[in-house]
Amino acid sequence: MFKVKNTILSDDIATAQFACDLPRCKGACCVVGDAGAPVAKEEIPALNKAYHLLKSELQKEAVEVAEKDGVVIGTQDSGYEISTVESDDCIFVKYDENEVAYCAIQQAYFDGRLKWEKPISCHLFPVRLKKIADFDYANFEYVPKLCSAACERGENENIYLAEFLEKPLVRRYGEKWFASFIEACKEIREKEKHAT
To answer: pTM for the full model?
Structure first.
């Protein structure tokens, strides 16, 4: 583990190689799992706004779930998550002509229709954050079914997970934090190189 300001991170965030490979994984992180993406309480209004904007573009089953259960389920104590269709597809999933799942919210952001890109947990995946006291704990949540294609691409193209996640990490912690984080990652990689 290593620490950057008030964030404690697992070493594999520094050492893993990773770059999303959508044509191969087909957007599995949006459709595989036993629960929806975790969201912070302060993100719920943005998700509700996105739902009202995008409702007519979403899958019929997704709209039925959102209307019945809500866009977000959970409580302050148990945590909040985006509703899913039968514990699989996030309600905001859309599919392209190649059956690749993608995020309707993110697409609307790219199109200039929304000012908010997507929940930070989705943006940071496969890194998961857990807040304990005043610290964020960050872990690389490696799920073979979801991550193997991205790890292979990262290794082939020499892209590290830490650098791949620059945009969401800067969004979460800021440029200064990210610069310190990358320095720490490079030190860990050097140590690992000399240890082998």
So the answer is: 0.87
